[in-house]
Amino acid sequence: MTQEDIEALKAKHHALLALCKAGAKGTVPVPPEKLLAADDERRFCAVCAANKPAIADLLKLYGLQDWFQEHAPGPPAQGEDAAQEYLARCEAIMRTEAALVPVERLREMARDAVQSCAAHFSGKLVHPTAQGAFLMAPCRPTAQPHVSSRSLRQAGIALALDQSKLDNTGVYQRVVRLLGPAIGTAPSDGNDEAQEPGAEIARQHADALREGAIEGIEAAARRIPGHVDRRLRQVLLPVPDGYLAVTPLPAGGMAALWHACAAFESGREAERLASLDDTENANPPAPGRKRRGKSGFTAQNKAPQISARPIFSTVELPFGGAIVRNTSLFPASVIQRQMVFAVPQPSQHLRAVWRFVFRPWTPWISDVKQVNQQIAALQVEGRAFSDSTSVAAVLVQSKGALGTLARKCHAQAVNFAQDLAQTPYVEDGKEIDIDADLLRRKRKDAPSDLDLAIVNRSFDARYRAALAMCILDQMRSRLIRMNEPTQIDYQNVRDLVRSALELALENT
Amino acid sequence: MSYLVIDLASSGSNMLQSLGLLTAAPVLPAVLLAHALDKRLQGRRSEPALDVRGVGLIHRHAEPWIEYLDDGGYAKPFAAQRRGGCLFDREDIVKNGGPQSNAAQPMALADLEWTLLLDCAKPVPDSMAGQAADLLRRMRLAGGDVRAATVAVHDEWEKALSHALRTGHWIDDVTQDIQSASDPMLSILQAVRDPQAGWVAPVNLGYALLETPHPARDGARDALPHAFVEPMIGAIRFVPASIARQRKLTPSHLWRHGWDGDQFLVTNRPPVESSPSLKGSTP
């Protein structure tokens, strides 16, 4: 069929196309390349139907894709009712054909798929190309209270299965989806028909799939990795006769449980806030008194807004590679989103001030490259500057980036001196002022002129000379670290820049 | 008997505790760092140089590397990573086409400042402090470079403790206290949000073997026996130094490592006894 024919069929069967969207949210349309491959209208409609998740699951589980293309019913008439009736017919003939599939074949298929793909712990999450590191959770008990697959098992919490590799036939994914990701760890007793996993297919088929899956899990648990991939970390744990190298493996099921617990806590918090809101509504303010806030916006006319906003902060960390579905059964929102737990952080202000008691103060130097360029440009423009410390040269130098840098450093020094004057130092439980005596007592080396100027808050000529030298030293070390060529090491250039800095500071 | 107070600053340490959890508190690596330091100081001698019996952990500062990248007009937080290639030796990198050929490893980074208080059974001469500091500067804490290390030797526990606890937060293992048998995960998350529980955070406090150790697995580090393991997530509490100083801490409150069957643990819970050796490792 040509592109025009396809477009005509799309227009004719737009209701069918709208009903046949795949994906978790039901928003993924039929791939255009599959539509283009259709020979006629009947196959076009069959391709659409095969994209519907319920039918796609049956097709892949029973391996009936080719059969369905040949035996799909004739195309429906236009309209949504006709499209729905067509999909129902497709599903009915699928079920009739599926019922003919031998139970033993299904069982073998499930066993093989689960045996080759099932894993609780997978090295592929660490690195998508890591090979051979796929293990099932052990069945040993634990006496330790930590969160591990063992303690979860003891608490009756099932760890969901993940995949060791992408099953391109789609059988493993369908088996897990039909039976639930906790196959084998939380078997159903079969009494509750409505809750029974796999209720979408015939009962004996679901039983066969489950039996096959459990056999596959048992076989997968006996799998012993032959090598450890170089992309995976190895930690040495001490044992009496040396070390044991171990490779920690992540479990997608564990991350899913953490996120589920966090969502549960968020929900509880939302409920608590809602109950607080209800209490507020139950006790309206006394008549005649206005509530604070925007006019007309009161608790009475405000609709309750209950939303389970996440209460644990998360950051993105790309576990599982660029396309998560290739490495894990769990979505990227579970695998690649990590909860961040805060740790105490000291006040940076106090920290800097107390550090000063033991270490010299240095300004933070920025825009070093621009300053270096200014110095270099002046050297190129007139050799006279390099051989002179004339007033004119110094004045020129003290403008631009160099002048800005000097003013910024001076502002830092003044701010720091103010912080210093307001912050006491704690010694033997007593608060004492930070002064020159304390510095002399606490420091190994005598405090510099710059430190004394800051602690005494006397920004005079000695301070300017000391700050200029300090800026020069800082600038030089930054330029060396940045591998930037500089002329700052030449004594005459150095003198010129120092004079310019002092002049800029004097004019501040 | 001597006590070492080690002030450490590391850059780019891993704060990834397990898939889904980031906490800038590498408790297990810090305890094992003390063990590694002992081994390095021992060198070729038959007896350990320090014979570390316990490690006190004092958290001072942590600065996670979080960068905000544009995501449809919103700034989305991303954990900064290190490329996996730099973790392998040069030959390995060259053979596989350079570090760029390796995708980024999931390893969330943070800068840390911690103090370790080591209880050493052996008397430690003052001269060893400089040697230990030099060694530490060439070591790593949770994969991060140790940028600065200072070591002080004390003969008395009280002096060592007051030196180590001058600021910061003492770290305690509170897994047992907050844990409930019904849902171990939920009880940790609830403790994190409970103001009565103090400042609690989940961290990795051990490894449980997923299999019997393989005596000669291909690719194992230094041809050692190898096993795949899963993290054991516990909970720690940050106790402010001012409160910790009033608690009359003793060397029995220090962190130690050991095996409980086939589970490797670090803990400072006083009643917990662990064996130095691995037992019953058949899952």
Can you walk through the features of this model?
The complex is a heterodimer of chains A (508) and B (283). Helix content of chain A is 52%, strand content 7%. Chain A has 22 helices and 10 strands. Chain A has helices at 3-12, 14-19, 32-36, 41-50, 53-62, 65-71, 80-99, 103-117, 149-154, 171-179, 203-221, 252-282, 332-335, 348-358, 368-381, 383-386, 391-397, 400-422, 436-442, 449-456, 461-481, 491-506; strands spanning 118-119, 121-122, 134-135, 162-163, 235-239, 242-248, 314-316, 337-341, 425-427, 430-432. The model of chain A is unreliable at 186-199 and 289-305 (pLDDT under 50). Chain B is of the alpha+beta class. Chain B has helices spanning 27-42, 90-95, 127-137, 157-164, 175-178, 184-193, 241-245; strands at 2-14, 16-18, 21-23, 52-64, 66-71, 74-79, 109-120, 140-141, 144-154, 169-173, 199-209, 226-240, 256-260, 263-267. Chain B has a 10-stranded antiparallel β-sheet with strand order 8-9-1-7-4-10-12-11-14-13. In chain B, strands 2-3 form a two-stranded antiparallel sheet. Chain B starts with a strand and ends in a 16-residue tail after the last strand. Classes of the chains: A mainly alpha (508), B alpha+beta (283). The interface between A and B is large, with 85 and 93 residues.
Low-confidence stretches of chain B: 84-88
Q: Spell the H/E element sequence of chain B.
A: EEEHEEEHEHEEHEHHEEHEE
- What spatial form of chain A do the alpha-carbon principal axes imply? elongated
What's the end-to-end separation of chain A, in Å?
80 Å
Helix content of chain B: 10-25%
Total helices of chain B: the number is 7
Largest sheet strand order of chain B: 8-9-1-7-4-10-12-11-14-13
Strand content of chain A: 5-15%
| Biggest sheet character of chain A | 2 strands, antiparallel
Low-confidence spans of chain A: pLDDT under 50, at least 5 residues?
Answer: 186-199, 289-305
Q: Compute the CA-based radius of gyration of chain B.
A: 20 Å
Q: Please list the strands of the largest sheet of chain A in the order they lie side by side.
A: 1-4
Can you count the beta strands of chain A? 10
Tell me the β content of chain B: 35-45%
Q: Share of helix among residues of chain A?
A: 40-55%
The chain-level structural class of chain A is mainly alpha
Shape of chain B: globular
> What is the tally of beta strands of chain B?
14
Oligomer: heterodimer
Structural class of chain B: alpha+beta
